[in-house]
Amino acid sequence: MTLKTRTFWILYALAMLLFGLYLGLNNFIDLRDVHSIAHWEPFVWETTSVYVIALLIPCILALESRYRLNARPRGRIVLVHLLGAVVFSAVHSSAMVLLRKLIYGFVGQTYQFGNPFVRGFYELQKDLLTYAVVLMIIFAVREFTIRRAGELRAAELATQLSEARLHYLTTQIEPHFLFNSLNAISNRMHEDVAAADRMISQLGDLLRAAYETDRQVLVPLERELGWLRGYTAMMAERFRGQLSFQIDVEPGLERAQVPRLLLQPLVENAVRHGLREGCGLLQVDVRRKGQRLQYTVSDDGAGLPQTPVAPGTGLSNISRRLELLFPGDYTFDLSARQPRGAVVTVNFPVAA
């Protein structure tokens, strides 16, 4: 018997004793004016009754597990438990009387049960109710356990589905990024073969770093920044002397867990749509706001179009990932920058 099982049975026996003493106390108060009754007798009556019931409860549990209340045919189940209740009453009454006779004999007295038919019927109607209550409790606990297990399983499946969707959305970024990078290398190759060769080497480093964490949804900020700096170095190589980047990160945030591949698509979107000619300044700021982290990506490029357009793959992907990771608890804003350009701000919860 394990320690956990032993502890359970000790607590079970103690609880039954306390319950028996409680009933005995009530019985004693009710009969306190009956001088022919000793003070200890009501406690013996109730504790012996409770302990016999406690010993029979596992039998009811075993019977119910074999003939469950919600099983079919219902008539057979009702009949089985009706017979079980009668047997329960007979065993309960017999064992209870036997224990009382032994205890009374031990103190030199005789226990009188009374008329067996009248007392037997009295105990039977009480035992039928007791059996029904125990049966209902067993049924309710089992149904609650099954429902709770189902809810936990559903929650687990929902989590797995969310993780699968997150992984899918994250992997969407990589082919998109790879296609754009190869296109940039192809354009640069006609102008500067050495620069194109450096860009290929930088792209290889980026892809290697990406596949090292391809199963992770959250990564340390320092790894996310490493990926970003590799990408900005490649873009600076493509638009040498024309495009500049500034990355400003609040100290002490390196180990903060952030969504993987979130910053790079924001910067890539700014380069493609805001700085279309490859000229200008792009600034990235990372700040902590209490228990939240804020990314700000701003450029001094063309700014926002006069008529709203549907977000592209990168921005819509980011929005869907943020909703999966932080449902209803994030902000994702795109606004104009003065005097020109655009600003993207992302704010989400973070833990160091």
What is the structure about, briefly put?
The protein is an alpha+beta fold. It contains eight helices and seven strands; from the N terminus they run αααααβαββαββαββ. The chain folds into two domains: 3-113, no CATH class; 161-349, Histidine kinase-like ATPase, C-terminal domain (Heat Shock Protein 90), CATH 3.30.565.
Topology:
Blueprint: H1 3-30, H2 41-66, H3 74-106, H4 116-189, H5 193-212, E1 218-220, H6 221-238, E2 243-249, E3 257-259, H7 263-274, E4 280-289, E5 292-299, H8 313-325, E6 331-336, E7 342-349
Helix pairs in contact: 1-2, 2-3, 2-4, 3-4, 4-5, 4-8, 5-6
Mean pLDDT: 84
SS elements, strand count: 7
> Please, what is the CATH homologous superfamily of the largest domain?
Histidine kinase-like ATPase, C-terminal domain
Provide the structure class. alpha+beta
Overall number of structural domains: 2
Molecular structure report:
With 352 residues, this protein is α+β, with helices and mostly antiparallel strands. The chain folds into two domains: 3-113, no CATH class; 161-349, Histidine kinase-like ATPase, C-terminal domain (Heat Shock Protein 90, 2-Layer Sandwich). Helices cover 64% and strands 13% of the residues. The longest helix has 74 residues, at 116-189.
Summary tags:
352 residues; alpha+beta; two-stranded antiparallel ribbon; Heat Shock Protein 90
